[in-house]
Amino acid sequence: MRYSYSILVVGLLASCMSKQPENAAIKPIYVTDSVTYDSDDPAIWINKKDPANSLILGTDKQEQDGGVYAFDLKGNLLTDRKAYPLDRPNNVDLAYDFVLNGDTIDVAVATERGKGQIRVFRVPDLQPVDNGGIKVFEDDSLNNQVMGVALYKRTADNKLYAIVSRKEGTTNVDNYLYQYELVSDSLGVTGKLVRKFGQFSGTKEIEAIAVDAELGYVYYSDEHFGVRKYYADPEKGNEELAQFGLTGFADDREGISIYKTGVKTGYIIVSDQGAHQFQVFAREGSSENPHLHELITTIPVTAMSSDGSETTSVALGPDFPKGLFVAMSDNKTFEIYDWRDLEKRILSK
User: Fold this and answer.
1) DSSP alpha helix (H) spans, the chain
2) How many CA atoms lie within 13 A of 322 on its CB side?
3) How confident is the model at residue 170 (pLDDT cuts 50, 70, 90)?
4) Residues paired with 220 in a beta bridge
5) 65-122, pLDDT tens digit by residue?
6) Other CB atoms closer than 10 Å to residue 32's CB: what's the count?
7) What is the reported pLDDT for 18?
8) Region for residue 119 given its phi and psi (left: phi exceeds 0; alpha: psi -120 to 50; beta: otherwise)
9) Which pTM was predicted?
10) What is the C-alpha separation between 181 and 161, in angstroms, rounded?
11) Contact by Cβ (8 Å): 166, 145
12) Helix/strand number for the chain, H first, E second
């Protein structure tokens, strides 16, 4: 049988296209409206009554004129919901069911680097409940360099803690992170320092922090060294439990997010900022060593030089039946991915 030249060409192109997705960057299904200055870190607020109307929060990092903004799940900026102005907000995280003066509310906590403090806002309206802010690193001369934050709610007593990191600080590399209990009183939310912990390599900085509240661990990126793991509960001590992601990164280790497939299973996703990709590690470790987090795969994305990310396995409407993944991109946006697209890449390995 004879084949025309055009048919052969079409066949070859189809063959190449069928192989392309294996290494091609995954594309988002939505991209948020642009912030004004410098997008930095996202968080996902799950609307328990109507998951499809959940929100993505994102920081716009700028001196004196920055803010935390809210987007719907299609990336539309909600102009009536914002924490503004803030002085160089870096990172943001969320917690649910915090009791404030007899009311149960959800809260977002953001670092305000320009003022050396963290800010606490009610969600979803992003109104402040902290009487102007909670100072951190007050015993350090460089306390205004606060960068990362992650929240940990202890199951045993529902106490809420904020774990914060800084760009620069103490020369004691064994106490680089501070942990504060968030306490409500008649004036709003205040913070009480409960521990200092965490090693630092001494090179670059520490920004990204993520808490696995169900398993009770905190992870953070020592950017030119690796990912470090500790207990999130301050009463369990300051032993370093694991180091992973020590090799194979093009540049900074950045945003960390945790996708849960079961009570103890899932993935730890770490931004390989210089390569515009994310490295995926096993959440559960091994039966012999629960702190052995092996690399599963690497996923390139269209988000550029991503500083921060967040993910959830909760179904969020028809677009996200298995949850979503959101990553900051250095073009002033946040990219919103259908988790199923990442899952296909992970399960193919």
Assistant:
1) 5-19, 339-347
2) 13
3) low
4) 209, 228
5) 999 999 999 999 999 999 999 999 999 999 999 999 889 999 999 999 999 999 999 9
6) 26
7) 40
8) beta
9) 0.92
10) 4
11) yes
12) 2, 25
Sorted by where each starts, the structural domains of the chain and their CATH numbers stand as 37-347 (2.120.10.30)
CB environment 124-148: b (16+ within 10 A), e (fewer):
bebeebbeebbebbeebeebbbbbb
161-184 in b/e burial notation, b at 16+ Cβ within 10 A? Answer: bbbbbbbebbeeeebbbbbbbbeb
User: How many angstroms from the chain centroid is the CA of residue 9?
Assistant: 45
For 119-154, the DSSP string reads EEEEETTTEE-STT-EE--TTSTTGGGEEEEEEEE-
Which tokens sit at 22?
A: 């294996």
- Average pLDDT over every residue of 297-312: 97
Taking the CB of residue 4, how many other CB atoms lie within 10 A of it?
Answer: 8
Choose among 93, 294, 300: nearest CA to 207: 93
d(CA 274, CA 304): 9
Q: Which residues contact 131 (CB under 8 A, 6 or more apart)?
A: 187, 188, 189, 190
Q: Is 239 helix (H, G, I), strand (E, B) or coil?
A: coil
Round to whole Å and give the CA distance between 101 and 22. Answer: 53
- Helix, coil or strand: residue 7: helix
Identify the residue whose tokens are 């052995």: 292
